[in-house]
Amino acid sequence: MKKRIKIFLGGYVNFPNAQNVNCDNIAKYLDKSKFEVHTMYVNKKPCDKKYYKQQGIYLHRMLQHRVIWRWCKYLVMLFGKYDIYYLPKMEQIDIEFVKKHKKDAVFISSVEGVVGEQISTTNQVIKEKYFLMDDVFSISKCIKESVKYYWNIDTKVLYLGVEGSTTNKNELSKKKIEKVIWIGSVIDRKRPEYLVECAEKFPRLQFIMIGDGNEQEKIRKLIKDKGLKNLKMTGRIPNEKVYEELQKADLLLMTSDKEGLPKVIAEAMISGVPVIYINECYNVDYIQNAENGYAVADLELMMNTIQKLIDEPYTYQKLASNALKSIQNYRWDNLIKEYEKYFLEQYKCKFKKTLTKE
User: Fold this and answer.
1) For every one of its 358 residues, what pLDDT tens digit does the chain have, with 9 covering 90 and above?
2) Which residues contact 146 (CB under 8 A, 6 or more apart)?
3) Which ranges of 202-297 would DSSP assign to H, the alpha helix?
4) Minimal CB count within 10 Å: which of 121, 181, 182, 317?
5) Which residue numbers delimit the Glycosyl transferase family domain (predicted)?
6) Which residues face 107 on adjacent strands?
7) What region does 122 belong to: left with phi over 0, alpha with psi -120 to 50, or beta?
């Protein structure tokens, strides 16, 4: 019987954020005949431990205390004696562990923001953390190019997957745009005020903003001052409620000035919801412009595109259908094979390939 690779995924599966959700999905979909999968959960949030046990996943409890948390994680990593450590969060305790135990295993991380945009080129601490790893991968072509340009590291692209079925009941029911959705942190760089302007421009459409952040009061005041009745703010809601709202939506707008590879775009597409995003500082690998979504240069072009889709229902219907079809390649049950291949390659050639610092 072949030895299973013992892998530690450094996320907290019951604490919702992008990196934790990704670790959760990798844990679920990895082939358990090839990998013995270990990951973590936090003690103060609900966790269906029975479900993970049925999936063949080993869970380790983290106590939510600022001092105990660190050492709890350190001890789990130490006594587990894993073959591979995937550490996407690169918390300080992760770095301390890697420095002391790098000779004993393969250490991997991922770059999930564009260097020069979300990741500062002058932040030497972050750069050194990546150089400390045995290998890193990028989650989009745009990120890969920035890592090469600024840090001179060649990275493999491993996309973040999306969960969903091969068919969608909404595919045939989406005939025209009636409800527009916006999902994200309500903060300055996400430019939530652009959604307010869109709602003002299209009073016959219904708009919904999901998320919280320090710009919420500013946006509420804007909505009130403009007397808008067609824009609803939900604040932060559970993930399952977000998915329910996506199912009811007809179009997703992304107004950020910069992103890595927004997972919400894939989640919209798997729900049959096409996307318009502003590609001022980034490109979305999932989107082929005017085929399964739109990349536009600014807010004015975003509004023009919305109007085009309102005026041309057939164009909208084709866009929605293509969005659902094209995202199938990015489902986790397809993408996981690339992750398995990557992890196995890193295990087989560990210590033979290193990042060269220049």
Assistant:
1) 578 999 999 999 998 788 999 999 999 999 999 999 999 999 999 999 999 999 999 999 999 887 788 899 999 999 999 999 999 998 999 999 999 999 999 999 999 988 988 788 888 888 889 999 999 999 999 999 999 999 999 999 999 999 876 555 545 468 899 999 999 999 999 999 999 999 999 999 999 999 999 999 999 999 999 999 999 999 988 888 998 999 999 999 999 987 778 889 999 999 999 999 999 878 899 999 999 999 999 999 999 999 999 999 999 999 999 999 999 999 999 999 999 999 999 999 885 654 444 4
2) 114, 115, 116, 117, 119
3) 216-226, 239-248, 263-270
4) 121
5) 169-324
6) 85
7) alpha
Helix-helix angle 239-248:263-270, to 10 degrees = 50
Task: Report how far residue 9's alpha carbon sits from residue 26's, in angstroms, rounded to the nearest whole number.
Answer: 8
Sheet harboring 106-111: ordered strands across? Answer: 57-62, 35-42, 5-12, 84-86, 106-111, 135-138, 156-157
The tokens for 147 are 């890592």
Residue with tokens 């025209």: 176
Distances (CA, A) of 291 to 255, 294, 312, 319: 20, 8, 14, 6
Task: Give me the numbers of helices (H) and strands (E) for the chain, helices first please.
Answer: 13, 13
Q: Please give the Cα distance from 227 to 222 (Å, whole number).
A: 8
For the chain, domains (ranges, CATH) are 5-161+332-348 (3.40.50.2000), 179-330 (3.40.50.2000)
pTM: 0.87
313: left (phi over 0), alpha (psi -120 to 50) or beta: alpha
Task: Tell me phi and psi for residue 10, to 5 degrees.
Answer: -85, 50
